[in-house]
Amino acid sequence: DPLEFGYANDTAALNGSYWYTPWDNLTRANKLEYPNGSILGSGMDGWIRRSTGNGELTVARTASDANMYASAWTYNGDNFISACQRIGNTLTNGMLQVTVEMNPPDKWYWGTSRNLSIMIGDDTLYRGEKADSITNSYYHHYAARFGFSGTAYNDMRFVFYDGIGNLGATAVYGTATVDTDKWYRFIATLDLANATYDVNVYDMGTQHSINAETPETPVETFSGNFRRPIGDDNLTELQGISAISLAAYGMQGGYAGTNNVSGAAGFDNIVLTATLPEQEPVVIYRNPFSTRTYTNIMGNARHTPLAGAIDTFGSSQDDWVKRNNGGLSADITAANNNPHLRLSDNGLDHAYFMQELGADITRNVLLAQVDMRPPAYWTWNYHQAALYLGDDRYWQGNRNATLAFGKYYALCFGFESTDTSTDVWGVYPNVSIFATDGDGTGNYSNVLSAASIDIGHWYRFTAEIESAANTYAVKVYDMGTVQPTLDTPTPAQPVASLDGLRFKMNMRKTGDPEDRLNALSSFSIAGFGIRGSQLFPPEEQVLVDNLLFSVKRTGTMIRIQ
Length: 561
Description:
ten-stranded antiparallel beta sheet, 32 strands, Jelly Rolls, elongated
C-alpha cells in the first residue's frame, strides 16, 4: 500500500553542473523589465538580460589555451548590458565570500556611463522588478557592488559602492594604478548580519585558471556598508542574497569582442563561498564559464530522486520506475513542509514515471485524483504534464516498435499547450487543460478546455472512469496558490469539465484483438518540455501531489434474508 511507504525527501542537497558552449551568448537579445517581460528572457544556464541595453555577453575562448570566459562587448561602445543569474541559495545570515576576476577595456568608449562591475543582491534584482520610485527598482536591490569605473574616457580606476543609509550608495574610487592589459581578482567578504563588506583587489597578470593562487598582497582595499540590508520589507530591504548581476557600460570590442579585443571587457572565475553560523565554509557556486556548479546548503531545499536510471528499480523509491529514453528528472522534495513531486530539467527532454496500481480494474468505476501546479510556459515543441492510465504492458515500458508501451494506455489528462511555435522569447507560453478522446483502437485527439490558467496556482484533476463502457470524464478545480494536502476540500465549482471522453484503447473483450487493454492496472506521471532545474527560474517546474485512486462499485445489490 503506497500510503504506508515512507518516501525519502531530504537525503540530498540540490546541486548540479552546466556546461557552457563557446561563442554562444549568455542572454537572449530580448529585453523587458518585470512584470512586462517577467522571466521569459532566460538564456544559457538561466542567465537573463535586464534593463534596456543592447550590449552582449558572449562565452569567449582564448586561442592560446582554450580558457573560457565571459566577454562583454558592444559594436560602437555607446551601450551596456546587465545580466543576472540565481546562485541556487537564499542566504540571510552568516558570511559570504565572493571571488570574481575582471579585465577592464583599454579605455571607456561612452561618455554617458562607464562601469564594469558585479552586483550581489536578491530575487528582485534577478527578476527586474520595477517600482513606482526609481529608488526601489531592481537595479538598486543589491548589497554589494564593485569593479571598475572612471569619470573620463581614459580614466580607469577600481570602484567600490558604499551604502549611505538611505537606500543609496556612494562610489568610492581607488588610488592604485590599473593596467588594462591585466586581469584582477576581487575578493569580497560580506557580513550578512551586520550589512557590511570588504573588498580586496589582486593583480593576477594574464588570464589563468580558476585554481590559480591569489597573491599575498592586494593592490587595493575597500571597506563599507551594504546598499540595502537584509530584512522583512521586500520594498526597501533585501530578502536575502540569492542572485548576482554582471554589468558592463561603455566597453567596445566589436562582434563577440573579437574585432577589438582590448576594447572588450571580461568576467571570469566566479566563486561564492558561504559560511553559515557555527558551520564550515561551503563553496555554493563556481563558474569559470566552462562548467558551472552549485550546491544549495539551505535545509528546506533537500530532495531525493523518485526513480533511478531508466528501466531499473534498485535506486527507485516505492517501486517507481522511469520508462522510455528521456532524461527529465522527478524529485521528492519537502519544500513548504509538504512533500511533493517536482518535475524539472534543462529544457528539451521528457520522461515517464510509472507505478502499478496494485489492482486490475476491469469493471466498476475508477476514481482518479491528482493535484498539479503547471509551468509558467514550455521550452520544447513537445509539451505536456499529465497522468496516464494503462495496463501491465504500459507499465513494462517496452520500446520495441510493434510492442511499444505507448500503445497500451486508455487515457491521459493534465496540461499541455496550444502553441505550435515559440514566441519571441523562445518559449511556448500557452498552458491549457487537456484530456485525450479516443476511438478505442489506438487513435485519439486531445480535447482542450478554454479555461484560463493562473500561473502559480495548483489545480486538482478528478476523473470518473467507467472501464466497462470505455469512457471517462474529467473535472478540474482551482486550488489556489497554497499547496493543498490530500485532505484539502475540493471547491464546489470546477473551472473546467471535459465530459463524454472515450478511451484511446478499449478494454479487451472475448474475441477482441490482443492489443486491447487487459485491465487498468498501472499509471504514470509524464512530463515533456519542462525546464526549471538548476538555476533556471523555478516557475518553469511542474509540481505534483496528492495522487488518489479509489473504486466506486456499481451494479444492483440483491439482499437475501
